[in-house]
Request: fold
Amino acid sequence: MSRAWTRAGGPQGSAGSGAPGQADRAAFWRRTVRGWDVAFYLMLALTAAGVVVTRPTTVSLTVALAALAALAVAYQLAGHRAAMSGSMRLAASYLAVLFVVVPVVASASVAGSVLLFIAYSQIWFFAPNRRTGILLVVGMTLVAFTAIGYQAQVRTAEDFASLATQGGVTILFAVLLGLWVTQVAEQSEERAQLLDRLEEAQAELVEIHHAAGVTAERERMAREIHDTLAQGFTSIIMVSQAVQADLARGRLDAARERLDLVERTARDNLAEARALVSAFAPVGLAETGLDAALQRLADRFGEETGLVVVVRLDASGATLSRDREVILLRAAQEALTNVRRHAQASKVELSLTDAADGSVQLEVTDNGRGIEPEAAEGFGLRGMRDRVRSGGGELAVSSGTDRGTRVQVRLPATEEQG
Reply:
């Protein structure tokens, strides 16, 4: 209970910090203090009634009632305020008054012993620690039972022994009960703090997941733009340059054909942009499926570059999900883009086959100058590798002894295999 009193003042002062858990506990302890107020005034009224019923002398009755009134005023001015604010000075002032009133009332009437119920509970409520609580309980019992012995006019050794035994039992009961209730209050507060920390950790985890999701989505969009729009614009630029060369040489028919290719590429790019905005699958897949999309990609690549493109599509593809089809199509796009930019090749082979282990294998092989072992991976290749790994697959890039580059993607056909 000593910790309960500490928390009663603590959270109230920090409730304005905006922490929901602290504000809730501050309200809880304020309601608890109101309960203590009711219990205090009820016990005080019962004590006053008991004093009157026992009919002490007029002087004793007047002194006892005056002491009880003083205790009520002291509680209102110091005790209650100490409970609400956590002030040690106010708490000490109130306990000092309590230590005076209890023996005064107990010496005036046997009913004054009822005040011990108030005294013990408030001592444990206000005590800053267990040791202080025990010392105050022992001190209160000694002064109270001394006053009770005086009021009962204890004279014989037998009476003293009986009174001492009662006092010892009372001390033992008050200490054990106070320690137990204090432990319960501390554990409740610790659980409340743990719950607060858990809620804070959950909130931080939600924020981290949100930030990670935003980053992942940005990376995904960057890969999508790189694999679609950026490659399409690169094609448009290269074909436009070829158109200018044809016009300079007076080859109008060739220029017209290349302009038609520029228009088709631009339209495809526009469709891809709309698909990205709508979060749809690539346009080619949505319309015709993976095989047709790869064939169309290879045909357009051959038209744009003039390279010989050999396509072999032998995979069943029956169990491929749309996400895996997207991975394979984007890998083929990136591989062909790298051939265009770096390979200086004259021939490209693109194949999609079923592997012996049940996975699907995509290969793009060229007869160009190859790739140096120490060459750093660019953004496109890193994006391709990340995309393939996200589908549970593997990416291998190598150069043969006779140069050329092979890009090999192996992807599980189903989620279970991945």
